[in-house]
Amino acid sequence: MYQYFLMVLFAITGVSLASSVKIVRQGDEALVEIFGKYDRKKLEPGLTFLIPFVETVAYKQTLREQMLKLPPQQCTTRDRVSITVEFIVYWRIIDLEKASYKVQNLKEAMLNMLILSIRTHIAKLAVEELYTARNEINNALVEELDTTTDPWGVKFTRVELRDFAIGSKVIQPTSFERKEVQKARA
């Protein structure tokens, strides 16, 4: 009976010690909660020991730059032409505490902000301006999104207009710009 009790005690001790060892990879960060409350304890890259059953890793995220490809979005230009645009967005978390506790679902919230911002900017332009104002659209979106998502601890590094379509015809902005430059030189 005594031996059985010791084996169970050693098993529980071994499991609790194994669960208290946490490894955070380079470029990642983790937040620790003590009895369900965040007390400003962050785990930096490397090996860390937590107090079993008291401290738990609540959130673990990468701080590296990430890419978010938006699904094609239907937009209407200033001259009431319906177009479909595709954007790629590069972003990164700069404050894991804000990204974890200030917004319920970070990626979904960012996606909704992006769609709203894109539609608003496209609505200010005529179709012809989309060909030449690509960089201005990208830069304006980065500035606006940075301001909007600052309380969430997120930094947008780049927003790129991949292509857009009027009806079923896909137009690559970079190829059109080259043709316009060649026409202007001739």
Features:
186 residues, alpha+beta, five-stranded antiparallel sheet, three-stranded antiparallel sheet
| Gyration radius from CA atoms, angstroms | 25 Å
Number of strands: 10
Name the CATH superfamily assignment of the largest domain.
Band 7 domain
Q: What number of domains? A: 2
Shape: elongated
What's the SSE pattern?
HEEEEEEEEHHHHEEH
Note poorly predicted spans: none
CATH-defined fold name of the largest domain: Tetrahydropterin Synthase, Chain A
- Cα(first) to Cα(last) distance is 97 Å
| Approximate helicity band | 40-55%
Mean pLDDT: 83
Q: Helix count?
A: 6
**Fraction of residues in β-strands:** 35-45%
Per CATH, the architecture of the largest domain is 2-Layer Sandwich
The biggest sheet amounts to: 5 strands, antiparallel
Counting helices, strands and paired strands, the structural category is alpha+beta
Which class of the largest domain in CATH terms? Alpha Beta
Q: Would you summarize the structure shown here?
A:
The protein has about 190 residues and is α+β, with helices and mostly antiparallel strands. It has helices at about 1-20, 95-100, 105-125, 125-130, 135-150, 175-185; strands at about 20-25, 30-35, 35-45, 45-50, 55-60, 65-70, 75, 80-95, 155-165, 170. The chain folds into 2 domains: about 1-60, no CATH class; about 65-175, 2-Layer Sandwich (Tetrahydropterin Synthase, Chain A).
